[in-house]
Structure formats: C-alpha cells, structure tokens
Amino acid sequence: MVEVKEEPVSSRKIQKAEREKIRRDKLKEQFLELGDALDPNRPKSDKTSIIIDTIQILKDLMTQVDRLKAEYVALSEESREVDD
C-alpha cells in the first residue's frame, strides 16, 4: 500500500489568507462607518444601498455647491454695484 502524504498548507498561503481577512474586515468596518455617517438611525443596510445613498448625497451636495457659487457671484456683483 502506498501512503499519500498530505502537503501542509504553506505559510505563505496562510499569511495571504490572514491578510485578505484583515482587508475584508477593514472594508466591512468602513462600510458600516459610512452607513452610520449617512444616517446613524438607519437599519443595518447592505453595501449596495450604502453606495447608492452615498452617490445620491454627493450629487445633491455638488448641486448645492454650484447653487451657492452662483449665489455668491450674484451677491458679489450686487455688492460692487452698491459700493459704486
């Protein structure tokens, strides 16, 4: 009878798996933190919902920034007219 020796898992594979688990855990924590930043009282959400909500909030903020810039320009021009 021939004995088949099982090769032990190499330490590199173990280290890679450990690094990957650390990376996944860190990513999970960052998603939870982002979800809490969006709405701390929201029920636990999946990653897709968190990303979709974040994109919408960023779009809304960019629109608000554009509106405020335009308002600033208009008020600056009005201020110059008053000073003249």
Automatic annotation (TrEMBL):
One of its GO terms (cellular component) is nucleus. It comes from the Eukaryota. Keywords: DNA-binding, Nucleus, Transcription, Transcription regulation. GO terms for molecular function: DNA binding; DNA-binding transcription factor activity; protein dimerization activity. Residues 11-61 form the BHLH domain. GO terms for biological process: intracellular iron ion homeostasis. InterPro entries: bHLH11/121, bHLH_dom, bHLH_IRO3, HLH_DNA-bd_sf. Its main location: nucleus. It is found in: Nucleus. It holds the Pfam family bHLH_IRO3. This is BHLH domain-containing protein.
